[in-house]
Input
Amino acid sequence: MQQRSWSGPLKAFRVKLVVNQVRSEADHSVGRAVVAAWKKFFGLEMDYLGGVAYDDTAWQMIRKRRPLLVDGADSPSATQLVAVAAPWRRSIDRGRPR
Output
């Protein structure tokens, strides 16, 4: 039986992290700590894209089963979600997902 090496594909795959329901700078530091732990324990890169603040509008949209980016587009959480996703989206549009 032939052994497979996963190191190449895993190094090519870059995980993205977004922390949800951020309420303080300490919550952002959790995101940075997760990235550091990921690198330390797995030896792989991870990008911390940022955080999306706690916002009651997001909770309301979930309860109503409505899309946040449509029905709650002007809410802080929708604005932050779009901002956090923008760099990743640009890399996809250029044909180079990172």
